[in-house]
Amino acid sequence: MLCSSTVCLYAAGTSQCDQPKVRQSHHKVRTRGPIGFGLIKALVPEEGRDSSLCVVLLKNPFNFRNHFLLGYVPQHRTFKKDTDPAAFRPICLLDALGKVLDRLVTQRIFHHLLKHKLLSAHQFGFTPGRSAPGAIIQLKDWIHMARLEKKHSVIISLDVKSAFSRVWWPLVLHNLKRMACPRNLYGIAASFLDGRSISLSYGDTVISKDYSIGCPQGSNSGPLYWLLIVNDALEMGFGEDVRILAYADDIYLFVAATGKQNIKKYAETALQKLQEWSITAKVEFAHEKTKLIPFGKKGKQKHPPYCSFNGRAIKLSRQLKILGVVLDDGLNFLPHIQYVRGKTLKILNRLTIARSRRGLSGRVVKMLYKRALERIIVYAAPAWWVGTANQRQKINSLQRQVLLAVTAAFRTTSTAALQVISGIEPADLVCEMEAALYQLKHNRPDPHFLGVHLESNQVERYLPSWAHPSTKHLVHWDQDSPDYDLGIFTDGSKLNGQGGAAFSVFDPQHSGDFQFRLDDHCSVFQAELTAIKQALLWKQQNRPHANFHLFTDSMSSLKALQKFAPKNNLVDDINSLLDGTISLHWIKAHIGVAGNEVADKAAKAASDRPSVDIHLGIPERSLKTSIRHLLLREWQDRWKDDNAKGRFTFNIFPEVKTNRCIDNRQLSQVVTNHGLCPYYLKKFNLRECNCRCGEDVDDDILHYIFRCPLLDSQRSLIRPGQSVLQILQDKHRTKEVKSLLSFLFLHQQDIFEQDPEDIS
Q1: Which Gene3D superfamilies match (predicted)?
Q2: Which of 403, 413, 705, 728 has the CB geometry, 3.0–4.6 Å to 409, for a possible disulfide?
Q3: For residues 210-233, b (16+ Cβ closer than 10 Å) or e, as one string?
Q4: What predicted TM-score, i.e. pTM, was given to this entire model?
């Protein structure tokens, strides 16, 4: 069905199009899809695209309701056959304009729900600032709280059958009306859900049918409609010891009590309420997938309660996978590390094959580890990382497999040495860092990192203004240098760890400087934004009606002002101060522009002021940098420990560095002394042999690199007295070392002399 201009105008609510929101929406629509959106980018100039798109939305009909049943969608977990109707999904193939309108309306409704806090606080999916780790941490907090009260507890995992396909539209509209959804948004949502059809094309036959239930797969509005349905279940009252939590369509019921009979009673009462809700909402629970995991008041529960749901016994499990994390009844999360190990090694095996057969270098494997595999390993680390000795040993054992793939070193090489020569931080420290960052970002109590207490109250936090999207305007700036009667030049600076912001007023001659000292932890970006904000405040107080030009050399600040959702309070404040009398200009720094030079000098002087004038929070990036410095310091302290393994490698690389990567088999032997030589073979009881030259007792790798006369013919650049580090820093000597050790491998039978006692 086609959507008319009347409906589009009704969706907008006014005759004025919300250009910033339209820009954000159509930039996020994928261009690889139905024909239409690409034409917008091709035919409409960039500078007029937003307003032109508004006109297109208001004047042209487009597909807004029709969807197509494309065919069998393989599902590896359920193994559904193509003869099973449940294996088919209606795919949302809206054209580009339909997708833009769908996104616009969905974001407007979300704005209304979030601003007025109409969505349940127990919903962790599809809501900003909430995540799967947060949901798991909430469940853990409930378990610990129950243990403090000396209560047993259970978590019941509930699965909704095809949740998004069972969204009942009348209930969606009912909840929107109950939540006082604005009339124009309610109208477009009702229009979107009215008169929908689904089509199946098979050969020359096309079958169409009207339907009134389910979310279109791939639409922006699908998650919103499901949240409106499940919100009723999350707002139900279950009693003091029963709590509910959801992540999208995954529902978890938590029950605590002093005895297992009470747990059974409370759980079955709550489950009965949920069953009644499911009938009202026209959704269905998959009872065969419902699971229960028990937690004792002091540890594992030896005799857990057995509960039933709708007359069916709930399966008891000692381990339960929740949102990608394996939760065990002992809360040590060792099964989760084992699960991640299997998942990671499966990917690593393919990378290792690619390295040997396709020439994939160790540096590429390292990059893939840092970008992908490490993210898999530390996923939800704030929820499962406890920092016990067992966890540290197992997580570093998992990382060890990656280190061997990167360095191609012998498997007997210590993990500590592998971490240093590959330049990869210990996995347990990375998990600690992820947990600490989460604690700070979400204002968790008593945040700490490696025994260091972190001040969470000083962290910069974004407080949304909840201004209506239609009140926001596009920010324009250019690189012109026009003549002006009133001009202001702004600049921010940070010298010797001290921050300052300043602006200089020209009307048109230099008439004054205004300087502001900032906290030492402030970034240059914060200083630049502060200078712009203070300049606008000065203009508002002293020249409210005058036209003036503001010049800054901070392009990052100007680009931040153009973002629709910058998530920065300074940017929001500046946007609220901008009006039609203000023109923004970017100028290049340090090219002799008089105003910019004056402002730069004033900003540097501001950083030397004796007291702080404006207090700002610690930016997230600076926080990550400082915590990372603590991580590197701890890694360095571990490496300096005399009792640590890898002392041979320590003598070559006494400092840990992340930009180091020894990714060659021969070079790894050189820096670890684990390689093909009599010293190594005898140490690990592999072979009793000595070097035929008889000039060295140890017969280690360094003997063959520098001293063995049997290899003199292979040396031309390497001389005794040189260090391994000097060789590694010279590409020609490095190449010679590789050639020398390759020769040793090929002629080992001639160079190694077997021990006579071993022969006998």
Answers
A1: 3.30.70.270, Ribonuclease H-like superfamily/Ribonuclease H
A2: 413
A3: eeeebbbbebbbbbbbbbbbbbbb
A4: 0.87
